Structure formats: C-alpha cells, structure tokens
Structure to design on (310 residues):
C-alpha cells in the first residue's frame, strides 16, 4: 500500500476519517472566515480527536482540493489499511458466517460524481463491496471521496483486470449475478433477492457490456411509469440495493428499520437523491432537511436562490 498522503475535503469525507481513523489524519485545514455552528462543531470534534488544525482561507483550500466544493474543510491523510482483494473479502465474509453477501458491480461507470454517489448508496444499504473494471471506469479521487460523503473510506472498492472473469468466479461461489436490462422479462419486484447477490449495472449511455450481459444469471428491469425511460446510475443503484434490503428485512435476515438501523438514515439518503440542490443548501447552512408531503413534494417554502431541476 502506498504511503503517499492524499487529500480529502468536505465535512462528511473528512469527518468520517477523523471518526474511523484519527491517527491517519496528518492535518486539517479549515476556513477561518467560516464561523457557523457546523464549522464550530466540526473543529471541536477534530480537537477532541487530537487532530492538528490549521487556519486557512477559501482560495488556498480550493487549490488544495482542486474544487470550490470543499465546504471550508480540507485534510491531508495517510492511506488506511483495507482488504486488498475481492477473494480476501469473500473469505472473510464466509469465515464470519455471512451467508448472503451483497455486492455491487459497476460496468463502465466513468463519472467520478456517479461513482461517489454509488459508493454512498452501497454503504447506506449495507453492501459488502463495489467492483469495477480497471479500464473504462472511475477510480477513487478527491471528487469521489467528497461525493461519497465518507463512504469511499468505508466501502471496499475493487478494480479488477477482467470483469467477465470476476463475474464467473462469483457465480462459482454461488453468488447470483443480477443485471439490469431494458428488455428484461422480470422487474426487480419479481425476483427473490434474499440470497447471495451481485447487482450488475452498466453506464447510463451504453448499459452492460456484451461480456457482462452474457454472464448475468437473471436480467431485471426497474419499471418506469412516466415519460422518462431511464434513471441515473446512482439512483438505479439505490433502487436495487434498497429493494434487496427491504426483502431481507421482511424475511428477518436483517433488523427492521429502527432495530439496529440508524433512524432517519434511509430517509436522508433518499432526500439527497431526490433533491440534491436543497440537500446541498441545507448542508451549507447547517439546517435539517425540510419535510415532504404525502406525494413526496417539499412542503416548506424555500429561498428563491435554490433552483430545482424538477
């Protein structure tokens, strides 16, 4: 594992690293001009963890992060030890008695924002790993880590040389490979997802490669009832992963919501996928997410400066 320090930025990404591996945090630069409650809470927790804090300004932070989306927080961190291979992870799961691994396979997802969102979704749904090919796929970088809101630090991400061969090896381990296809005969609600599962999704424009599609055990489709005929890949991941979670909870494989699952976690994630502009504004202002009405629409008045996509 390389010992070269890397950069993390944003409250979630840096905060998760401080919480899970404070010894790996070399220093945290923060915008001294930002004095809101969220920044005060963040710096207090960093000091409690013994992290070195350095006063900085927005321009320097933007240069370090390579983005203006740093939220006033940038950290230099050392890499942390993680499981080094998919085989090692699967052996550990088997040894610990995990009977139904849940894996997410991304075939050709090259956009770092999509990858970050998929990692966050996978972590929220309790997936064990995300798999992607080394070629024609996004790797982990600062943008991915920021969008993933800490999940890039907690979710194993394996980039494999030959994705088709990896799918074949998963099938040999009796992990059912389920792939999305627009012309699949069954929907996600028609298929039993309680056993060992690898969900295989392709890039938005091209879908699954021919090699991956040929190895899928069960093609499925997410039913669409409006004018739009497809979903963003991260939203599709969320739909599939949380359907797996729902089926397993109903069957008693996992604790039901409120029994061992952090309250509000699912609701918050779903709000962020549906209303990213509002979620970003709330995070900047340190405000709770607004409530939704029975039809899923925002029931509170928002500032005129927020432009919704819908």
């Amino acid at each position: 594992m390389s010992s070269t320090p890397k950069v993390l930025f944003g409250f979630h990404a840096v905060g998760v690293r401080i919480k899970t591996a404070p010894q790996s945090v070399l220093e945290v630069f923060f915008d001294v001009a930002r004095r809101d409650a969220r920044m005060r809470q963040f710096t207090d927790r960093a000091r409690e963890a013994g992290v070195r804090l350095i006063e900085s300004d927005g321009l320097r932070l933007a240069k370090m992060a390579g983005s203006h989306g740093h939220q006033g927080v940038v950290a230099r961190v050392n890499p942390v030890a993680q499981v080094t291979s998919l085989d090692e992870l699967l052996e550990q799961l088997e040894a610990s008695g995990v009977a139904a691994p849940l894996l997410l396979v991304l075939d050709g997802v090259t956009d770092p924002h999509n990858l970050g969102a998929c990692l966050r979704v996978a972590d929220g749904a309790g997936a064990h790993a995300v798999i992607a090919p080394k070629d024609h796929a996004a790797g982990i970088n600062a943008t991915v880590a920021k969008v993933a809101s800490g999940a890039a630090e907690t979710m194993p991400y394996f980039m494999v040389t030959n994705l088709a061969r990896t799918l074949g090896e998963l099938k040999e381990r009796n992990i059912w490979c389920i792939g999305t296809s627009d012309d699949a005969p069954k929907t996600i609600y028609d298929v039993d997802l309680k056993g060992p599962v690898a969900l295989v999704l392709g890039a938005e424009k091209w879908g699954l490669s021919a090699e991956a599609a040929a190895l899928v055990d069960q093609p499925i489709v997410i039913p669409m009832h409006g004018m739009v005929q497809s979903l963003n890949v991260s939203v599709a991941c969320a739909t599939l992963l949380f359907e797996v979670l729902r089926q397993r909870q109903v069957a008693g494989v996992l604790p039901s919501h409120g029994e061992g699952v952090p309250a509000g976690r699912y609701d918050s994630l779903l709000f962020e996928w549906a209303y990213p502009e509002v979620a970003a504004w709330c995070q900047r202002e340190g405000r709770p997410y607004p409530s939704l009405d029975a039809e899923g629409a925002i029931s509170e008045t928002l500032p005129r400066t927020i432009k919704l996509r819908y």
